[in-house]
Amino acid sequence: MPLPILIAAALAAAGTAIAAEHEVSVAEYKFAPAELRIRAGDTVTWVNREKRTSHSVLFNATGEESERLFPDEKWTRVFPAAGRFEYHCGPHPEMTGVVVVED
After folding, report:
1. Phi, psi (deg, nearest 5) at residue 102
2. Rg (CA), the chain
3. I want to staple 69 with a disulfide (CB 3.0 to 4.6 A). Which of 31, 73, 80, 100 is the partner?
4. How far is CA 53 from CA 3, 44, 94, in A?
């Protein structure tokens, strides 16, 4: 068995979850998926799939905002703790999404 598979199997057997990576597509003035459920420690990457428009990711509760994402640009954030993280696009507040982080 290759080493990465052995390590993953050993961590799973020990009850340690492996962090996952997720993607949110930004296209047609929407976040997809609009609601994303993940585990604590997972990473989310937003990718602007528009042809000519820039967007951002602005978290409602904290005011944390990504830089402007131009076509084909990405922004990544790790979610270390459980919670509900509602967000919208800074320049287009009608675009909304939420990341739900479970234990």
Report:
1. -105, 155
2. 16
3. 73
4. 43, 21, 15
